[in-house]
Amino acid sequence: MTVQYRDGIDIELSDGTRIVCDADEPDGDVTAVSHAHGDHLPADGTTAVCSELTAAIGTSRMDGTLRSASEPRVELRPAGHVAGSQAILVEDPDGTRYCYTGDVSVRSRHYLDGFEPPDADVLVVEATYGKPEYRFPPHAEVVAEILDWLRETEQPVLLLGYAFGRAQKLQLLAERAGRARVLTTEGVLRINEPIEQALGVTFPAEAFDDTDLRPGDALVLPMTSGRIDWVDRLASESGAVTAGFSGWAIDDSFRFRGDFDVTFPLSDHCDFTELLELVETVDPERVYTQHGFAEELATALTTRGFDATALKQNQTSLRQF
């Protein structure tokens, strides 16, 4: 039995079956996809163990078609990260239970329920914010600060967050704050549609067609837009205020790197404390950390008595038990 970080997370069972999770070019016996962010999707169309919503969103964002399938040895559990995201539980023929979280959040937010850690013998957990300095304020406090700022700011606002995940929540917050119009890009609207159909939520944004921004408007943009000159010109010409939304906003450098007027630590991941609590709840015999501050999180878990190892890509197989 081995767990490796190769092209994705590769779990080899006692009978030789390979479950390959979130690979760019999966080559295992079973392919699994935790969610539809680009760094977790296969490069081309494929059939994978994933939620129907992940398949729909993934298909809208990739070349080819992502098709959802089931596998008796694989169970999906809502991961609380983005719409459709699932943790992947694998049952080995010898009875060992593996849990690969993918990206994960234990906080319930808007239309998402937080991840409920399952029982597992082996846990593969993300470590995006796996350092002690990354502790977020309570989610309700962050939301209250955002709403207050949106209500108090008369100018147009440019709200920058990831096109899938953050952008949908920013639309809802802008509506809740009573902004005159909520606008967004065609790319974000394409992602809105399958989420609305699957979860029964309605996003308020209409397409932004380069019309003049007016006081009271909120324009939701993908985070990558902040690097495009036309966004700077738009902000300058309209007198708009720019805001960045990310867990990285805990660090003041995020504001300066993105040249934002204001930032908020709104995240779809666990913070450091939540990662520790997640592992403690699962209480596995073995923990693997990956994606982010993997070594720092593994060290913190080891000091708390866990058998924890940071996975490195293409390393030698790690034997368990």
List its salient traits:
about 325 residues, alpha/beta, Metallo-beta-lactamase, Chain A, Rossmann fold, 2 domains, six-stranded mixed sheet, six-stranded parallel sheet, 19 strands, globular, disordered C terminus
Q: How many structural domains does the protein architecture include? A: 2
Using the coordinates shown, work out and report the CATH topology of the largest domain: Metallo-beta-lactamase, Chain A
What is the CATH superfamily label of the largest domain?
Answer: Ribonuclease Z/Hydroxyacylglutathione hydrolase-like
Class computed from helices, strands and strand pairing: alpha/beta
- Total strand segments: 19
Write down the secondary-structure element order. Answer: EEEEEHEEEEEHEHEHEEHEHEHEHEE
| Overall pLDDT score | 94
Q: How are strands sequenced across the largest beta sheet? A: 7-8-9-10-17-18
Could you tell me the radius of gyration in angstroms? 20 Å
Q: What general form does the structure show?
A: globular
CATH architecture call of the largest domain = 4-Layer Sandwich
Distance between the termini: 9 Å
Strand proportion, as a percent range, falls in: 25-35%
SS element count, helices: 8
> Uncertain spans, ≥5 residues at pLDDT below 50?
316-321
Helix content: 25-40%
Explain this structure to me?
The protein is α/β, with parallel strands linked by helices and 321 residues long. It has two domains: 2-133 and 269-319, Metallo-beta-lactamase, Chain A, CATH 3.60.15; 139-264, Rossmann fold. The protein contains eight helices and 19 strands. It has helices at 52-61, 139-152, 166-176, 186-199, 229-238, 253-258, 272-282, 294-303, and strands at residues 2-6, 8-12, 18-21, 30-32, 46-49, 66-69, 74-78, 86-91, 97-100, 122-127, 157-161, 181-184, 206-207, 217-222, 241-245, 262-264, 286-292, 308-310, 318-319. It has a six-stranded mixed sheet, with helices on one face. It has a six-stranded parallel sheet with strand order 13-12-14-11-15-16. Helix 1 packs antiparallel against helix 4. The chain is globular, with a radius of gyration of 20 Å.
